[in-house]
Amino acid sequence: MWRSTRICFLIHFLLLLCVATFSSRVSFAAEATTAWRTEWEKTVKAAEEEGALVIYMTQSMEPVFRDSFQKKFPKIKVTMATGRGPEISQRVMSERRAEKFAVDLYISGSTSPRIFHRAKMLEPVKPLLLLPDVVDPSGWYEGKHHYNDPENRYIFVFEGTPRSGDITFNTKSVNPAEIKSYWDLFAPKWKGKIVTVDPLLPGPISAAQIFFYKHPDLGAEFLRRLYADTDITILRSNEQLMDWLSAGKYAFGIGAREVDTAMLQGLPLMQFLPGSLKEGSSVTAYNGTLSYFTRAPHPNAAKVAVNWLLSREGQTAWLDSNHRSGGFNDSLREDIPKEKVSEWARRVKGAKFLWLDPAWIDELGAIRDVIKKALASAGKGR
Q1: Residue 72, SS3?
Q2: Which of 35, 124, 166, 284 would suit a FRET pair with 268, their CA atoms being 20 to 30 Å apart?
Q3: Total Cβ atoms within 10 A of residue 314
Q4: Can you tell me the distance from the alpha carbon of 287 to that of 191, in angstroms, rounded to the nearest whole number?
Q5: What is the mean pLDDT of each run of 10 residues along the chain (382 residues)?
Q6: Is 45 helix (H, G, I), strand (E, B) or coil?
Q7: How many CB atoms lie within 10 A of CB 5?
Q8: How many helices (H) and strands (E) does the chain have?
Q9: C-alpha neighbours within 13 Å on the C-beta side of residue 60
């Protein structure tokens, strides 16, 4: 009798403990939910009181804020200045020298934000993150947030677009099924049939050079042979490169810009599908990094914009906007639909990818030394 009473008491005690623990967890979760909602509502209200937001960005981002963000937050008037990274970064630097602090956020590629970072013009992004699906990194590529600065704090990367060496080919001259590896470019039939933008000038070609140089199956030897053994033609004009490549004067082009536009126009140009070559593809941001300036004039509006853009809603709106111009960029979020991303720009499960570590940008000097020596050996030194 005593033993059964003791057992009943123990069971009752354990049940009460479980109920208390469950109630505590529910209460904690409810408090956490209330806390972020309260903070978010407070931030949105303060942003609406500021009534303005200034963003400098690449052209492709402008419709996202004009059509989607502005519609969701009509009381926050967004002013945008668009252009290419080098142009906008020069504008920012000029304004800063004149003690003019007009801009809140910067959305661009990978290179120009690092200039601001070195000049100590950026505030950390992480303290701005508030919405649960933004704070939680599990929905992002590799289960983490990616940054483009050594401290992993200042330049948030939300784009992860794969590229196969930034190589474009003429579909009338090249059967892509015959090219199974980057090394196949050195086949005798392609000698004198490769054209490139100037490999010693900064631009999108830098990502391809870093990919070749750092890839364990390519490396410096691949770069050396590319510029020394292929009788490669170097052009400074992207327009001329695209014209000659489209006309079939050359079979392959490296580092060409606006290829997506040319493909949509029906020109006989194409790039290799991500992961289709043996060595795989690079993954990096071409237009998708986010930075927050020091002395930003509208800090609450900036916080609202950062959280909205990085949320599932914001990233989906970005991909929807990209889809209207071909869908040639991919989000690092992996918990959103990707059917509107072009197959030429979409990461594919099971494919081989090399994430371009931002620190590798500092090796461009060594990479260009390899290229200069290769060009000199081919009689094309400058």
Answers
A1: helix
A2: 284
A3: 25
A4: 33
A5: 51 51 46 83 98 95 96 98 88 94 94 91 98 97 94 96 93 96 97 96 89 97 97 94 96 91 91 94 93 98 98 97 91 96 90 90 94 93 67
A6: helix
A7: 9
A8: 13, 15
A9: 27
Alpha-carbon gap, residue 14 to 16, rounded angstroms: 5
- Pairing between β-strand 194-197 and β-strand 161-163 as defined by DSSP bridges: unpaired
What 8-state DSSP symbol labels residue 142?
G
How far does the chain reach from its first CA to its final CA, in angstroms?
100
Residue with tokens 């020298």: 97
Residue with tokens 């309260």: 38
User: What's at 375, amino acid-wise?
Assistant: L
Structure tokens at 24: 């505590």
- Which residues have a Cβ under 8 Å from the Cβ of 168 and sit 6 or more positions away? 245, 252, 253, 254, 256, 259, 269, 270, 271
Structure tokens at 199: 């490999």
Phi, psi of 22 (to 5 degrees): -60, -45
Query: Residue 308 corresponds to which amino acid?
Result: W
